[in-house]
From TrEMBL:
PANTHER family on file: ARABINOSE-BINDING PROTEIN-RELATED, SN-GLYCEROL-3-PHOSPHATE-BINDING PERIPLASMIC PROTEIN UGPB
GO cellular component, one term: cell envelope
Annotated source species: Streptomyces gilvosporeus
PROSITE patterns, per database record: TAT
The protein, known as: Carbohydrate ABC transporter, N-acetylglucosamine/diacetylchitobiose-binding protein
Taxonomic lineage: Bacteria, Bacillati, Actinomycetota, Actinomycetes, Kitasatosporales
InterPro entries: Bact_solute-bd_prot1, Chitin_NgcE, SBP, TAT_signal
Keywords: Signal, Transport
Keyword Zinc in annotation: no
Signal sequence coordinates: 1-34
Protein family membership: Belongs to the bacterial solute-binding protein 1 family.
Compartments it resides in: Cell envelope
Length: 479
């Protein structure tokens, strides 16, 4: 993927976190520490369980937290840390929070030595591979946190305050929850209402209308779409929910489960054909196959293309370019309807957790790590996060009384419109190389550059999926 400098500013924080698409190979690291959980790192004694301390935190024990310092920064976590110290003043100066962009290289020696932090925001370009972490039994099950009473309403469990799909994202085929995703990302087709208004248009709810609008834009010298051709695994942000809309969520479930011929479903072919038509008719910005994520976003934000497949982090990441156009009015659209026979309604969208937090199994103070997460999943902390970083939180609330910027407001509205029609594909969490290199670069990128037909892309992807299924060294997961 290249050096981390290629991912300046947000360092793919959300896409890496939410999708697991960026991961430094971690097998050797975690293999080395698989037997190190006892490595002289004695657990602190539990405290006394009470209504105010439901996780039985040792009130005088230290707490060691490491945060990924990406587009979200670390202030939101430091603010929650201050709340932790208020709750446990005896811990005082022993509560330590550090931040880094190099999660794996910073933490590798500590995992190897059996002395990991108590809480880790495992995100960014050096994100540790979750499949390996789980397979090597390196994580604590977060069920005690999920079953603890929420900070705001003791009658509600923490699990009952989370947005749809957050808990499932942290699971790997079993009942245990290994990861708590703190941010909540809405994926889809991002656009400027202002730029559409210049064409006397609104977001196209049908694919025929999408093609007609792209044709209209082309006559004005504007491309319909662009995408980061260097990192074509952005395409699924809108393509996967499009597949689900056409054929039903069951199609994505079969794909996630690596079922034979899952990619040969007619819904996949229909979706691929539709996207390929964008290329064939010249509706994709010239040069897109050579653009990285920042270059494609800049071209889009500068008005050279109407639409881009992306996630809700794009509002912060393109803030300067968007601000240059006071009438930009950022918004996100769900996949357009291909036909009246689509299995899911217009509004079906992909939304899921981002910014993944883990409590290492060998942590000295795992109760403290979970308690800090419990504090972060309060209305106060959630609102603080939303205001600071312009992102929704996995806590299902916190937007009341908060003025949301246009893109985030649109994403919130899209979630409300989707209702139960929210999809959350897991392929990119479970099989990093398959999603990123093979499906993304090896097939979708080739197809959208015109170097592979939809049929050829499907044939290649099905083979890649079959190879993954047949590789006994890769742990398999199902939903």
């Amino acid at each position: 993927m290249g050096s981390t400098s290629e991912f300046n500013r947000r360092d793919l924080v959300k896409r890496a976190a939410a999708l697991g698409i960026v991961a430094v190979p971690a097998m050797s690291v975690l293999s080395a520490c698989a037997g190190a959980s006892g490595g002289g790192n004695d657990k602190v004694a539990k405290g006394t369980k009470s209504a105010k301390n439901p996780l039985a935190v040792n009130e005088s024990a230290g707490l060691d937290v490491v945060i990924f310092d990406g587009g979200f920064g670390d202030k939101y976590a430091k603010d929650a840390q201050a709340e932790y110290v208020k709750a446990f003043p005896k811990a005082g100066g022993k509560v330590k929070l550090s931040s880094t962009q190099k999660i794996q290289s910073t933490l590798q020696p500590r995992f190897n030595g059996g002395n990991p932090p108590d809480l880790v925001d495992n995100s960014g370009a050096e994100q540790m591979d979750f499949g390996t972490l789980v397979a090597k039994n390196q994580l604590s099950d977060l069920t005690p946190l999920l079953d603890a009473p929420s900070v705001d309403d003791p009658a509600k469990k923490v699990r009952d305050t989370l947005r749809p799909g957050v808990i499932e994202m942290g699971q790997f085929g079993g009942k245990e929850t290994w990861i708590l995703y703190y941010a909540y990302t809405v994926y889809g087709v991002w656009y400027s209402r202002g730029n559409l208004h210049k064409l006397d248009a609104e977001y196209p709810e049908t694919w025929d209308d999408m093609l007609a609008l792209c044709a209209k834009a082309k006559k004005k010298g504007i491309a319909g779409w662009t995408y980061p051709g260097k990192y074509p695994y952005y395409l699924p942000f809108s393509l996967y929910p499009f597949i689900a809309k056409i054929g039903g969520a069951e199609v994505l479930r079969r794909i996630d489960n690596l079922e034979p011929n899952a990619w040969k479903d007619p819904a996949v072919k229909a979706a691929f054909d539709a996207y390929y038509e964008l290329y064939k008719k010249g509706y994709v910005l010239k040069g897109s196959p050579g653009l990285d994520h920042l270059q494609s976003q800049k071209a889009w934000a500068d008005g050279k293309a109407l639409f881009i497949p992306n996630g809700s982090w794009v509002e912060n990441e393109s803030a300067k370019q968007i601000a240059a156009n006071p009438h930009f009015d950022l918004a996100v659209g769900a996949p357009s309807s291909l036909s009246a026979s689509d299995k899911m309604p217009f509004g079906t969208i992909w939304a899921s957790g981002g910014e993944p937090y883990i409590v290492p199994k060998a942590a000295r103070n795992s109760e403290g790590g979970m308690e800090l997460l419990r504090i972060m999943l309060s209305k106060k902390s959630a609102q603080n996060f939303i205001k600071q970083v312009s992102s929704l939180c996995s806590f299902n609330g916190g937007t009341e009384g908060v003025t949301l910027p246009p893109g985030l407001s649109s994403a919130h509205t899209a979630l409300q419109k989707a209702g139960s029609n929210i999809v959350n594909p897991r392929l990119q969490d479970w099989y990093v190389a398959l999603q990123k290199e093979r499906i993304g670069v090896g097939a979708l990128g080739e197809m959208m550059a015109g170097r592979m037909t939809p049929d050829e892309a499907i044939q290649h992807i099905q083979k890649y999926a079959d190879d993954t299924r047949g590789d006994s060294s890769i742990k398999k997961y199902k939903r």
